[in-house]
């Protein structure tokens, strides 16, 4: 046990070593410092639960020296025994010296404690005497104090009595004065009179059994009744301002609250009704059938309307704030009226005015809206709706504007031109169209920007957070989409049956417009929009520019395809009729090129000029040396070279034409032609010549018939090759026509080539 | 499952006229009429041996002129009608005649090919359809499913209904009508409807399609401006009355419900040049065959307007025979209209396409350069329709 105490005191290192040699459990690392504590507080359950007591544990409570000795003796070799013995004796020496040190230290402390206690004993004796003195003095003081108070008591009671009487008299004085005061204030300051009456009332009621007090009370009652009467008339009269004050005062006068509120509400309601009616009077009567002719222009502008509505109606309504359902119903009606008024803003009028009106509406209402949470949403929705409505209207206006421009273009195209005088060229028309549409769009953007101006209060509404996106999608993107759709409509729609088809020049113009949109305008517009309305990071997804461009491109492609089909069909029709109606068997020897061929060449030339005005030329195959045969410069000069040149590079043109060789049939006859001018022309020529081929195959020709076809073919070749991207296309088709004609000929004797050339030259 | 390769047969002459042997329901046999101004024209009888993929041909001489149109009797395998050009130095006249082919050629060829080339046989003339008063014959139509005694021919602006008497040796004009109007009206083609007890025909002139009642010879409907340009051909849906397909120079194929002629039911715009021919499959009317002068033949699957819009319907009795477990598998998605295949074996304009009368999955197309191509419906689709 001594070893255990020593271990807890200083020699923890010494106590550890036998344990380590004893091969104790490894988990003792944290347990060791707790061991002695646990033993001090009694054997814990954990300890008790542990393995059976080990008598060989030198630190354990069950240490049995005999057992330990026998164990050590029997198990350890001599060397280890010696070493153990040396260790043990060293430990015992160390423990002894530690014990001595502790003993000395504790002894000193004990000595000083004894000294202190002795000193305290002496001091206490001294203190006891002083305390006795103090007690005696205190007793003397209390006795004299009692004497003094007894002497003064009588006088004090009388003073208090006097003060009470004086207060009572003052109160009485006030009571007597009450009627006079009431009368004085009733007229001018009813509030003060009321306060005064309220103070006096309870007292009067309490002492009403005394006649003099009864008189006062009656008098003041009479005055107050009069005052109540006056207040009521004031409440009833139209002048509204301090209505709630009146009501409050009447309430203080103990007028029945129910009746008062009824009266007050009916008054307020009547006034609000009158205001609403006044507002409504400004709106044209709603026509239930909806067939009204255009309503007369509203009497006052929207700003004025809102202004009046805000100041009069909203002001009154604010006073009603507390009566929520009542006010809410009225507010809803007011919103409905305002909405109707907004709906009257059919024209585009002045957006700034609208914005200001909405802004004022929003501001004025804010006070009210704190009281009416449902109204707040409704008002915000109203503002948002009005804004949205305005954007939609702008979109419609843009569309109408565009259609108007198109109408102008159509008219300009259809207008008969005096011979010799050129009408406005296609490029001019296109430029005018594009510029005016773009200008209109910009103007609209500027207008709608007003909605998010810095000083506009409602711009902070959640709806206007994504105003930019709304505009971009609802206005700009929608317009471009609509434009593409409309343009496509000219190609898809009316060509079918009935309905007048669009003039080919218009198709071409629209194709160019769409192409310009694809190339530059769309990105320009979108950039412009994004600049004016910086996009929000968290905003909803927007339509990317490339998607719009693709749409525009598809529209342009479709229009051009349609143009080729329409023009090709026109020329083809001419050729087909001319072949079908001629008697090829009995015809005379050809002396001239047939007029229809000249017409075909003229038409194709005109088409070339038309296309050339709007589209750059594209790639033509190397031309043969005799291009000097015709004054080609006429066309190239009218083509405004370079005007659109940088905006477009010919797509897949070589691929398209590579598919044509005389041995392959024109599979891609009507197939989508790539955009540049030359492909358009090639497509039209292919369609025309293929028609000629098919028609000739359906006929039976005589010798001169064959020769006529020969002459015509040569003529066409002379004048058409230059329009095609690859003159071999023309050549190949014409060869085929000639071959078919020869095949269909009863007497195939071709004309001498020189004669053919001669005839063509002459023609 | 590889599809069989197309079988190609070349004629020496140019050709426009093609017809299946309508009365033959076992063997696959087509008749082709040639066009040559300088040589004797021929009718090639093309027998196709489906199992061995072999073509056998027999050639009949048709010496009266080049053949523009050919059609076969629905009742008698040996009888056919042609429209041919009779040319003199100053005049071309298109006439029509009914012919009988030699007995041994009626059903199949027994000769070796080298024999036929040296020893061509001649058609036996049964009767002429006298058109001296009526103008050029555009086509001859046999009464579908009839006894081969009634034919209608279109001559310029006349519709002529003939009765063939004395075993087709005599053609008697039983009734006729003429289309009157501004300008020179000319029928380009016509079709006899298999519905309504075969009392209706449809004709095409310029951009207009007209329906006629053969009993009264009166017009019963008229589709003005059916196509933007000339209408080239017509065909009736064999399973769905009132449904009519038309094609024309505007490269389109249109499907009409003749009860509502203001709008086509459907329009196909797959070809890039004039569409000369449109044919419904005789059994599965969703299969539409078109031939065009863009040298292509297109097979389309027009399920949505066919008589089987939801695929093959399983009959109730058929169901009771089979186990019910198959029922679920039979319910399929409605199929989409689509182009099944584009055949590009031709190098010249295709003027005629025809389904075989014997095998509903087989068709022939003929281009101007005399190339006849026999093709089959892709097997995958065939099984899809059948199963």
From TrEMBL, chain A:
The keyword Protein transport applies. It is found in: Golgi apparatus, trans-Golgi network; Recycling endosome. Keywords: Endosome, Golgi apparatus, Lipid transport, Protein transport, Transport. Pfam families: VPS51_Exo84_N (PF08700). Component of the Golgi-associated retrograde protein (GARP) complex. Component of the endosome-associated retrograde protein (EARP) complex. Belongs to the VPS51 family. This is Vacuolar protein sorting-associated protein 51 homolog. It comes from Geospiza parvula.
From TrEMBL, chain B:
GO terms for biological process: protein ubiquitination; regulation of cellular localization; regulation of transport. Keywords: Repeat, WD repeat. Residues 314-333 are annotated as: Disordered. Residues 7-299 form the EIPR1-like beta-propeller domain. WD repeats lie at residues 224-260. SMART domains: WD40 (SM00320). InterPro entries: Beta-prop_EIPR1-like, EIPR1, WD40/YVTN_repeat-like_dom_sf, WD40_repeat_CS, WD40_rpt. Gene3D superfamilies: YVTN repeat-like/Quinoprotein amine dehydrogenase. It holds the Pfam family Beta-prop_EIPR1. It comes from the Eukaryota. The keyword Repeat applies. Residues 323-333 have a biased composition (Basic and acidic residues). Belongs to the WD repeat EIPR1 family. PANTHER family: EARP AND GARP COMPLEX-INTERACTING PROTEIN 1, WD-REPEAT PROTEIN. This is EIPR1 protein.
